[in-house]
């Protein structure tokens, strides 16, 4: 069950642009929750239970969102040698440091 919550996506940044809230998040592909595919126009898109959930939430709460996949495709593991966390959690922490 814990994997479900992590696979929804991890929040990075909430910004206000053109009077519209845009939520930016990082995710990993983890079927059936999040699955990456290419649409007819060749654009990267996502589908799955978690995507359907965030679609419904965004429509009822009135915000837009953008997703991208963690570069290494991992949830995130702490590396004691570097003192850093990789994966989706590392992406969140890196963006929050800005």
TrEMBL record:
Show where the Ionotropic glutamate receptor L-glutamate and glycine-binding domain sits. 32-94
Q: How does it sit in the membrane?
A: Multi-pass membrane protein
A single Pfam family it belongs to is Lig_chan-Glu_bd
Localization, per the record, is: Membrane
Note the superkingdom of the native organism: Eukaryota
Q: Name one GO cellular component term.
A: membrane
Zinc keyword on record: no
The entry's protein name is Ionotropic glutamate receptor L-glutamate and glycine-binding domain-containing protein
What organism is this sequence from?
Answer: Medioppia subpectinata
Taxonomic classification: Eukaryota, Metazoa, Ecdysozoa, Arthropoda, Chelicerata
């Amino acid at each position: 069950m814990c994997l479900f919550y992590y696979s929804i996506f991890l929040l990075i940044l909430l910004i206000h642009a053109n009077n519209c809230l845009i939520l930016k998040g990082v995710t990993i592909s983890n079927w059936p929750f999040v699955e990456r595919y290419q649409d007819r126009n060749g654009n990267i898109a996502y589908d799955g239970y978690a995507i359907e959930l965030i679609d419904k939430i965004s429509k009822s709460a009135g915000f837009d969102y953008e997703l991208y996949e963690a570069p290494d495709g991992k949830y995130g593991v702490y590396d004691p040698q570097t003192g850093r966390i990789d994966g989706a959690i590392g992406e969140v922490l890196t963006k929050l440091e800005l």
